[in-house]
């Protein structure tokens, strides 16, 4: 299920990860086509022919950065990047409009999203600013698998 919206064929051309010039951590690449769907005035973006990356650190103002260390900050986005806000009403699944609060209170939602991704009905690469599947951002994964292991063991 983690294979949904895989863009590994495009990732092969560029280095997989690059260091965010602001917080110094390594992040995965994101297609330029995804960036254009989330920034303000995409027609005015001076993008270069290079790899771009997505920083998901809530403490960091950078959303996208290029291999040349150019940056696009939160203030330059028209999409609110939920995983960088950590607010209850911020979106974690952009395909189906799931907020962090909803995902926490109703674990059935994750099941629904898993079913949709299995059928390749999701559109994470376009709708999610990270360009990746949103399932990894769902909360409570540990407690869910914990419950499952418990029942298996007993
Ligand atoms: Zn950063």
What are the key terms here?
154 residues; alpha+beta; 5-stranded antiparallel sheet; 31% helix; globular; disordered C terminus; binds zinc ion
Short summary:
With 154 residues, the chain is an alpha+beta fold. It has 7 helices and 7 strands, in the order αββαβββαββαααα.
Global Rg: 16 Å
Q: Write down the overall mean pLDDT.
A: 85
Q: SS-based structural class?
A: alpha+beta
Low-confidence stretches: 7-12, 143-154
Gap between N and C termini: 26 Å
The total of helices stands at 7
Order of H and E elements: HEEHEEEHEEHHHH
Spell out the blueprint of helices and strands:
Elements (H helix, E strand, L loop, with lengths): L7 H4 L5 E3 L6 E5 L1 H5 L15 E3 L7 E5 L4 E3 L8 H4 L5 E3 L4 E2 H6 L2 H11 L5 H4 L13 H13 L1
Antiparallel strand pairs: 1-2, 2-3, 3-4, 4-5, 6-7
The structure holds zinc ion.
Structure description:
This protein has helices at residues 8-11, 32-36, 82-85, 100-105, 108-118, 124-127, 141-153, and strands spanning 17-19, 26-30, 52-54, 62-66, 71-73, 91-93, 98-99. The chain has 154 residues and is α+β, with helices and mostly antiparallel strands. The longest helix is centred in the C-terminal third of the chain and has 13 residues, at 141-153. It has one domain (8-140). The strands form two sheets. The protein has a five-stranded antiparallel β-sheet. It has a two-stranded antiparallel sheet with strand order 6-7. The protein contains seven helices and seven strands. The model is unreliable at 7-12 and 143-154 (pLDDT under 50). Strand 4 (62-66) and strand 5 (71-73) form a beta hairpin. Bound molecules: zinc ion. Residues 20, 22-23, 55, 57, 60, 62 line the site of zinc ion.
């Amino acid at each position: 299920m983690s294979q949904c919206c895989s863009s590994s064929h495009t990732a092969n051309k560029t280095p997989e990860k690059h260091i965010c010039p602001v917080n110094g951590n390594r992040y995965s690449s994101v297609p330029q086509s995804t960036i254009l769907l989330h920034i303000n005035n995409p027609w005015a973006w001076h993008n270069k022919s290079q790899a771009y990356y997505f920083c998901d650190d809530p403490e960091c103002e950078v959303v996208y950065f290029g291999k040349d260390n150019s940056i696009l900050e939160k203030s330059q986005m028209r999409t609110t990047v939920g995983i960088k806000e950590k607010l209850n009403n911020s979106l974690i699944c952009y395909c189906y409009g799931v907020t962090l609060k909803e995902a926490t209170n109703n674990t059935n939602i994750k099941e629904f999203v898993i079913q949709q991704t299995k059928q390749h009905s999701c559109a994470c690469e376009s709708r999610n600013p990270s360009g990746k599947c949103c399932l990894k951002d769902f909360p409570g994964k540990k407690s869910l698998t914990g419950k499952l292991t418990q029942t298996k063991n007993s």
